[in-house]
Description:
The protein is built from 10 helices and 9 strands. By secondary structure, the chain is α/β, with parallel strands linked by helices. Strands 6-5-4-7-8-9 form a 6-stranded parallel β-sheet, with helices on both faces. Strands 1-2-3 form a 3-stranded parallel β-sheet, sandwiched between helices. Helix 3 (101-110) runs parallel beside helix 4 (128-138). The protein is globular and about 60 Å long. The two termini are 15 Å apart.
Amino acid sequence: MIGWGLGAPPIEKQTNLIGRIESYWRIRSRKKLIERLDAVIAYSQKGAVEYSSITRASNKIYTATNSVTKRPDGSPPERSPHFVDRANVLFVGRLQSRKRIDNLLKACASLPKNLQPQLKIIGDGPERNALVKMAESVYPSAEFPGSMHGAELKKYFIEADLFVLPGTGGLAVQEAMTYGLPVIVSEGDGTQADMVRPENGWLIPANDEVALEAALEEALLDAARLREMGNNSFRIVQDEINIEQMVKIFIKVLNLTNYSVDHKS
Length: 265
């Protein structure tokens, strides 16, 4: 029996008696479940550390970094070492409040005039009308082309210089990396830390407009550095984080646990 999950975040300590009892049983239940399993596969390194922290059987914890993209072939798109006119910043995802696109609009508006990018926000959702209205006063040059897929969306990825995911959730960051884009990503469930490193982007605290503005300014100051970081993004999804690599871990764990069960019997 194999478990698969995001991890086991620390349970908040309670001060009242009932809360302490509930916390105790939750911790104990977690531990019993992990120890009953033949193996546990975590979505991320952070998740694996959390599982290991609640059991002595850390040798049966494995990491299969969550992925939604196939291993890209060839090389990333070629881009000029200089920005054409202004840098092109891209967001792709559902337009909802937790994606914090409002912070992205405000952060772009706060940049020095010579660094303010052409911002393209791809997607649709419940916040679209409110964001379009906000952009009219905060950052009028922002574009909202709507929902895009396939060849239409590919065009925007190729034209972009930088991909930004300012809020929680969103799998488009992996797709952006397959197009050789450096990324600015807000911290979320832990899977982002495996993909976003100093050599390919910026991992910023969730809902931190100041950190977002600082990362944007640093990124847009040096086009040549962005190109190098984009190449690193491509290498990461080509060699380390892709569906094929994730499947390899699952197959490895299945083979190991099958051997273990047969050997015991």
